[in-house]
Amino acid sequence: MSKRRGFDIDFPGNADGVYTGAKRKETPEPAARPEGRRGPMAAAISENADALRQRAEAERAIREENDRLAHEHVRLKRAGLITDLIPLDAIRIEKLTRDRGPGPDPDIGELKDSIRAIGLSNPIQVEPSGDGYELVQGFRRLRAYRELYAETGDEAFAKIPAGLIATGAELEQLYRRMVDENLVRRDISFAEMAVLALRYAEDPGTSAEDLGSAIDVLFASAGRQKRSYIRHFGSLIEQVGDALQHPQAISRNLGLDLNKRLASEDGFEGRLREAMDGQGEVSPDYEVAVLQDLLKSAPKAPKPRAGTTRNAAAKTTLRCTVPAGTVRCAARDGKVELQMERDFSSIDRHRLEAAVAAFMSALDD
Fold this sequence. Notes:
alpha/beta; Replication protein, putative; Chromosome_partition/occlusion; ParB_N
C-alpha cells in the first residue's frame, strides 16, 4: 500500500488558530504622471491645433504674396512693362485713328532691314480687348512685321513683341500715348498731325467739339506756334484733303501758303481741284510741284454774289445726337458736311433725296 504524501495548507488565522478568511489583494494606486505630461488624446488634439495654426499662417502668407504680386503686375502692366509675343492676326487697329495713310511708307524698308538684322528693340504697345488686342503704339512696327511675314513666311515674324497695358484707360490717354510717341519722330508731317486731330474730333468717344479743341488736347505738349501750324494744315485738309494724294509731302511753308490762298481767294479751291483732277496716281514730288505752280499763278479777282458777303474762312461746327447716333456737322460757305457711323450709300436713293430736300426746306423756314 502506497504511502500518500501530504502537504500543508496555510490558512490565515489569528493567534489562537481560528480561520479568519482569505486576505484580499488590494489594487495598487496608479502612479502619478510626471509634471506637464499629457495623455495621448490631449497630445493629439494639441498637435492638430498647432498644425491648423501653421497651415492658416502659411495660407495667409501666400495670400499676401499673391496680392503683392497682383498689384505689382497691374503696376507694370499700366506702365507697359509686361511684354509678350502676340500673334499678328490677334492685333486690331480699329480703336484709334492713325495719322499714317494707307499708301506706301518710304521709310518702311529701313525699318524692316533693322528688324531682320537685330530684331525689334522697342516693343509695340497693345491693350487687351475681347479675344484679341487693340494697338495703341507702334503702327509702323506692326506694319513692318506684317510685311516681313507676308514676304518671307518666316514664323519668327508671325508674332511681335508687345507691351501689355491695363484695360480701361481713357480714350484721350490712349490718343495722347500715340501722339507723344509720334512727336519724337523727325519725319512726321504737319498734315499727318492735322489728320489725327481731325479724326479725334470726329470720334464720338472723345469730348472734342472741333479741330481747335482736338489740337489743344492731343498736342498739349507741343509749343503754341506748332499748334498754330497744325490748325492751318487742319483747315487745308478739311477743305481739299480729298483732292490730294500725298498731303504728308506738303512742307510747312507750302501748306501755309495754300491755306492762305484758299481763305482769301474766291475760286482757288476750284482751280486746285481742277489741277489735281484726272492726274491718276502721281508721286509726292509731282503733286508738290503742281501745287507750287498753282501758287505762282496770279490770283483771280473774286466775284461776290449779289447782296452777300463771302467769308470762305468762316466755319460752324456742331455735334447733334439723334436716335441713330451722334452726327458731326461742319458748315462753311457753300458746303455742309454730316458725319456719323452709318453707311449712307446703303440708303434708298429716293429716301435720301427726300431727306436732303427736307433738310434744305427746314433751313429756309
